């Protein structure tokens, strides 16, 4: 981010100069930004190199020396402060035993100290099983089974001899002294020293690589756990995903609640008892469902007129082809000669609380309310029905349940010479009961009054699926409506 700001400094100055607004840069200290960027550059480079897979303790020593040298070369207040703090922090975390041994193994002119030799001996003993090289003593030692035949003086001499010739874990390894001396004189590491040197180079200078590995494992395991949390079968999820995409492609996109309801139905069919519980699918399940189906995402739909939604002539031809087959299958081809038998039913709604325009309010206010006399979702719904012969059947007007002016509305419609079917619902929306009631009245009264023979076919538009299915089932039972 600093780099992008610094690189765009000149462009920023030229732009502000064009607007005569150079004063906006008075509070911006670009010199401090340059100093900070220059100081962070060697640190960034050092971190990147230390995080590489081929980084070793040997290369780490060179990288850190380079970083400290460059920070001192910059010679700014920021770089000096970074140098001091980083050096202090690294010295606190530095394993001096390992680094001192590595320096002695890298440079034959650096003799190992007594503590370094002791550490090297312990390391070799732990990694390779090396000992101090005194397995065979210069003098043969009596077997402990013969100790019972020794005098007290001989037993004491034997204990003193063992103490002088044996090497404990904390003592200097004599063979290491000899091999380091040989290394100093020849400049070539012995086989044992090379093994220790290779072991030291296998140590990673930082834990970045390990953290990266565990991060990848964590992400992988998280994805696996998400897949294992499927409550409905994979086939059902695929069917659900295809259903969502199909609705979106034909201009009828689904909501999150539609997916949750469908998942609940699958759960009730596949699991006994249902695993979703009484509250239905959780937010976590839905998020996992979206992760398992990346081809589905949230989008803001664009309104499209019904006429424009007919994208090609083939779709229209396909509809009439399937419709004619359906008529033939149900022995209704004779209706094609009766235009009054084909009806179109549609609804529209008028919200009692229309969406308000933008209003003026105090800047920073979290919520701005506007009080309405009606409930937020209250509306009046009007349903119309026409047939292909141009005849109009009585429209239906749905008021909210507590509407008190029904008589006045009926009187006004009578004065205007119009005839409506009035009913009520909880909030003025079309429901299953109001829809079925309207269709039933059309069948019992309007079709009879207009001398329209049964059966008739009603094309229903924008009515809830539940209502349509129930009404359709009712129509099939009496064979008068299709």
TrEMBL record:
InterPro entries: CenT-Element_Derived, HTH_CenpB_DNA-bd_dom, RNaseH-like_sf. GO terms for molecular function: DNA binding. Keywords: DNA-binding. GO terms for cellular component: nucleus. It holds the Pfam family HTH_Tnp_Tc5. Residues 224-299 form the HTH CENPB-type domain. SUPFAM superfamilies: Ribonuclease H-like. PANTHER family: POGO TRANSPOSABLE ELEMENT WITH KRAB DOMAIN, TRANSPOSON. This is HTH CENPB-type domain-containing protein. It comes from Polypedilum vanderplanki. The lineage of its organism: Eukaryota, Metazoa, Ecdysozoa, Arthropoda, Hexapoda.
